[in-house]
Amino acid sequence: MNVIETNNLTKSYGKARGIVDVNLAVKEGEIFGFIGPNGSGKSTTIRTLLAFIYPNSGGARIFGKDCFTQSAAIKREVGYLPAEVNYYDDMKVRELFAYSAKFYGKEGRNGKVSMAAVFDKAVKARIESLSDRFEVELGKRIDSLSLGNKKKVAIIQALLHEPKLLILDEPTGGLDPLMQNRFFELLKEENGKGTTIFLSSHILSEVERMCDRVAIIKEGRILQVESVEKLRNNKFKKIKVELRAAEIGQAFELPGMTNRVVKHGQVEFLYNGRINDIIQRLAAEDVANVLIEEPSLEEVFMHYYEK
Question: Of 83, 116, 194, 196, whose CB neighbour count within 10 A is largest?
Answer without folding.
Answer: 196
